[in-house]
Specification:
The complex is a heterodimer of chains A (460) and B (173). By secondary structure, chain A is an all-alpha fold. Chain A has one domain. Chain A is built from 17 helices and no strands. In chain A, helix 5 crosses helix 6 (160-193). Chain B has 173 residues and is α+β, with helices and mostly antiparallel strands. Chain B has two domains: 5-50 and 135-171, Alpha-Beta Plaits (2-Layer Sandwich); 53-122. In chain B, strands 2-5-1-6 form a four-stranded antiparallel β-sheet, with helices on one face. The longest helix of chain B is centred in the middle third of the chain and has 27 residues, at 53-79. Classes of the chains: A mainly alpha (460), B alpha+beta (173). At the A-B interface, helix 1, helix 6, helix 7, helix 8 and helix 16 of A face strand 2, helix 3 and helix 5 of B.
Chain lengths: 460, 173
């Protein structure tokens, strides 16, 4: 027992009187039982939204980008806002599984699987937007540096948009293999307890014949650690590069050096908020309260509060630097952002992102499920408006007052956005019924040190 | 008396670890140990060599870094140099700062993917691969040692029983 010692001051991460077998049963239960009516209702709504979005995408491709609300002054608005929003949400997964692994944070184990799933699903949504905006998505492969028949026509490696393609595709594929490698032992657990032959076959196929030999585990742990080491700078680089899309331009309001750290903090902020939204529902529906405890929710709330404060600090720094720079274009961009026709969006962004997380200083609130859920949604709304504010308010007042204009989305714009939310939830709902949603092999390694029953046994 | 192969089941990781140490001490060969989760210290107790996969990964990362430099140099400098935004592409080193993001991404891309592929191949993991754990409970909550019986089967058996084995099965080679 002595090798499993953990300081008594640390609260248990696995609640209840659990054995190794109980963990397997609890994690396999959602997969082995048929979904209830609530799941089907949620799935139908998500599917309907997804189909609606598909229709709007088809309309866009058939008619052209003219069906969107863009105009000659605001040439980038709705779709890039959604793109950045989804990429930002996609940051929590790798942060939880990689950065918290390097910091040896054991509470990561209850939530990393779902956070990684959410990452992959939201990066898929993000990727849709630039591809649709191309107008001819079947030519999307032109973004890759491949020899072609157009003479020596290559992609431009000086362009932040190309950096973005490399960053996002590296991030998506590396997150995917990180996720899948961690899933192998858990798929194997489902495979070995399966009664129905087709289930055994499917999980046998996707578990890649995992057998759990001592050498496999030794490599598995090394691979996880090195992947975490690689994914940590990767996750920070991805949103840095997304911010370069704006920061390397010469538009006042975009051309600021604070963007990379500010975007990364914002991404972690919104990503954790989305993990919070999803897991608060999932722990209840899949009865995982023993693994995703109030302590997990509190930890995530603390991350949300800290990153929200960093984001708030960045907003204020931007305003200060605009004034301090003495550049009148820069000063006008920020004055217009806060007090111009889009003041309401700026106000929403400030109140949702800077003010709302501050109430998490109160322990009662950050350990309360309803409050946590509400704030997680408020934060996601706020982070969408942050991107909208940055993008649209910087563009809609051009250098020439004759080209000043406003942006309003068409129903096609809105439909595509709703469609990606639907697609995201379709994927997540399917995942919740067919994948082991908690990394059970990892939870078993901390059961003896952080399990409630073992902690009690030690205290005696 | 000929050597037999034993499949010994345990239901606790600490008992398993002590048993493995004991078996190694009594010089009986352990073919393999199957566990549902990584048991810390098991590789040392079994005297497994440390894995070299992180060294391989470093090499893969270097390959990715080199590939990115060669590719960007060929595309941007050799094949079709252009003056983009007042940044003429006539030498790699002068243009290098704006190539750093992609050099970094490709380094990570090569390192991560080649490492995972190496892991899958070395540990024989791929679709349609049949699982090799002799008992399905070893992915759930049981631990199995696949070992030789040693010269004296009954002595080994009583030793294993004393160490806390919950079942001992003789299997044909």
């Amino acid at each position: 027992m002595s090798s499993h010692y953990e300081a008594p001051i640390r609260k248990p991460l696995v609640l209840g009187d659990k054995s190794y077998g109980d963990i397997s049963n609890d994690i396999a239960r959602p997969i082995e039982t048929p979904p209830n009516t609530d799941w089907w209702i949620a799935f139908s709504i998500a599917m309907a939204a997804f189909l609606w979005g598909l229709g709007c995408m088809a309309y866009t491709l058939g008619t052209g980008i003219g069906s969107w609300g863009l105009n000659k002054t605001v040439g980038w608005a709705w779709d890039i806002t959604n793109f950045v929003w989804w990429v930002g949400i996609g940051h929590a997964g790798t942060l939880i599984s990689a950065v918290l692994l390097l910091f040896r944070q054991k509470w990561r184990m209850g939530i990393n699987r779902s956070a990684e799933a959410m990452t992959i699903f939201s990066v898929i949504q993000a990727g849709l937007f630039p591809i649709i905006h191309m107008g001819r998505p079947w030519l999307a492969y032109w973004m890759f540096p491949i020899p072609n028949q157009f003479g020596s026509l290559w992609v431009n490696f000086n362009s932040p948009l190309l950096w973005d393609i490399f960053a996002i595709s590296t991030y998506l594929t590396v997150s995917l293999v990180f996720w899948w490698t961690g899933l192998l032992p858990d798929f194997a657990m489902i495979r070995d307890r399966a009664v129905k032959p087709w289930r055994k076959k499917i999980y046998g196929l996707i578990s890649f014949g995992w057998s759990g030999r001592a050498k496999d585990w030794q490599r598995f742990e090394e691979v996880s650690l090195v992947l975490a080491g690689l994914a940590t700078p990767l996750v920070l680089s991805v949103h840095t590069i997304v911010s370069f899309d704006f920061a390397t331009s010469v538009i006042p309001g975009w051309h600021t050096t604070i963007f990379p750290p500010y975007f990364v903090a914002g991404a972690i902020f919104s990503g954790f908020a989305m993990v919070q939204t999803l897991l608060i529902i999932m722990r209840k529906v899949s009865r995982l309260e023993s693994y995703i405890t109030i302590q997990h929710i509190e930890m995530m709330n603390i991350v949300i509060m800290i990153t929200g404060t960093i984001v708030g600090c960045a907003y204020i720094t931007e305003l200060f630097i605009a004034w301090y720079s003495g550049v009148e274009y820069e000063q006008y961009a920020f004055l217009n952002r806060a007090t111009g026709p889009y003041w309401w969006a700026y106000f929403l962004m400030m109140s949702c992102n800077v003010v709302s997380p501050q109430i998490m200083w109160v322990k009662k609130i950050r350990t309360n499920i309803i409050w946590s859920f509400v704030i997680s949604i408020v934060v996601n709304v706020g982070m969408w408006f942050e991107r909208f504010v940055i993008i649209v308010t910087s563009l809609h007042r051009d250098y020439l007052p004759s080209s000043w204009t406003m942006f309003s989305p068409t129903f096609i714009d809105i439909g595509i956005f709703i469609g990606t939310i639907g697609f995201f939830f379709v994927l997540f709902l399917l995942y919740a019924r067919s994948f082991p949603v908690v990394a059970q092999a990892e939870i078993k390694t901390i059961l003896k040190s952080s399990g409630e029953n073992y902690k009690k046994l030690r205290d005696k | 008396m000929s050597l037999k192969r034993l499949h010994v089941l345990f239901d606790d990781d600490d008992i398993l670890l002590d048993a493995v140490k004991e078996i190694v001490k009594s010089k009986i060969y352990i073919h393999e140990v199957y566990t549902p989760f990584p048991v810390h210290g098991l590789d040392k107790a079994m005297k497994l060599k440390p894995t070299n996969i992180s060294i391989a990964t470093f090499i893969y990362g270097c390959i990715g870094f080199t590939v990115s430099i060669l590719m960007i140099n060929y595309i941007m400098i050799v094949d079709w140099p252009q003056d983009i935004g007042g940044k003429p592409s006539f030498s790699y080193i002068e243009n290098m700062p704006s190539f750093v993001p992609i050099m970094f991404e490709l380094t990570v891309f090569f390192a991560a993917h080649l490492m995972v592929i190496t892991f899958y191949l070395r540990s024989k993991l791929w679709p349609f691969k049949e699982a090799e754990n002799p008992d399905p409970s070893t992915t759930d909550d049981k631990f199995l040692i696949d070992m030789d019986s040693g010269s004296n089967l009954s002595k080994t058996k009583s030793m294993l029983k004393k160490m806390g084995a919950i079942s001992i099965k003789e299997v044909k080679e």
